[in-house]
Amino acid sequence: MDNWVWALLLLVLAIAIGFIELFVPSGGSLTALAILVFIGSVVFAFLQGTAFGSIFVVLVMVGVPLSIWYLLKIWQTTPLSRHILLDPADDPALWRDETVEKYKTLIGKMGIAKSVMTPAGQIEIDGKCYDAISEGMAIDPKTTIVVVQVDGVHITIRAVQNVSGHSSNTSQTTKMEETCE
Fold first, then answer.
1. What's the domain range around 131?
2. Is the dihedral of CA 23, 29, 31, 34 positive or negative?
3. Within this chain, do residues 77 and 98 fall inside the same structural domain, yes or no?
4. Phi then psi for 129, rounded to 5 degrees?
5. Cα(167)–Cα(159) distance, integer angstroms
6. Do 99 and 174 belong to one domain?
7. What is the pLDDT of residues 89-138, one digit of tens each?
8. How many domains does the chain have?
9. Is 163 exposed, middle or buried (0-12, 13-18, 19+ CB in 10 A)?
10. What is the mean pLDDT of residues 63-69?
């Protein structure tokens, strides 16, 4: 067989081994083998001639990335990739819908701590309950709070300080406790 045939066969073999690596996790050993076979195909291309080798390398520089892109598009539909890749529906930090936008509107709003915030707990704002985190300080139940930051669906709050510097407690929680529970 001519060297150009070996170059093409080894190139196809390298791509096939790389494709198999996507479905059969081998810890990188199949990838290493694919790289070695690819190098062998380039060597055989240059053994055919310098012009053929140069054209082969240029075509491979365009063809291999396109092949990888196409194979990755196929791979995204496999059961294995569904176990590896994040699904935006499962991760609130990746949500791009009205829930995240609604949470952002809470910044600056006042509410009531419904549980002891050490630092995580439950708060109520406008009759709705939310899980929140204080800025590191423990906050007693029935303390008036303000939302200072929202990151995705993670709400950060702090106790509202009155003029004397003490956090303010409120007594209007009887109705709120019923709506929040």
1. 92-180
2. negative
3. no
4. -90, 145
5. 6
6. yes
7. 666 666 666 777 788 889 999 999 999 998 899 999 999 999 999 987 88
8. 2
9. exposed
10. 83
131 with 155, same domain: the answer is yes
Name which of 93, 147, 92 is nearest 117 in CA terms.
Answer: 147
Look up residue 91 and give its two tokens.
């991760």
User: Does residue 99 share a domain with residue 75?
Assistant: no
> What's the average model confidence in pLDDT over 62-67?
84
- Locate 168 and state its tokens: 């303010």
pLDDT band at 163 (very low <50, low <70, confident <90, very high): low
Query: What are 166-181's pLDDT values in tens digits?
Result: 555 544 433 334 456 5
3-state secondary structure of 124: strand
Supply the CATH number for residue 168's domain: 2.40.50.140
Same domain, 22 and 101: no
Beta bridge partners of 129: 124
Decide if 113 contacts 142 (C-beta within 8 A): yes
User: Among 70, 6, 77, which Cα is nearest to 39's?
Assistant: 6
- The type of residue at 9 is L
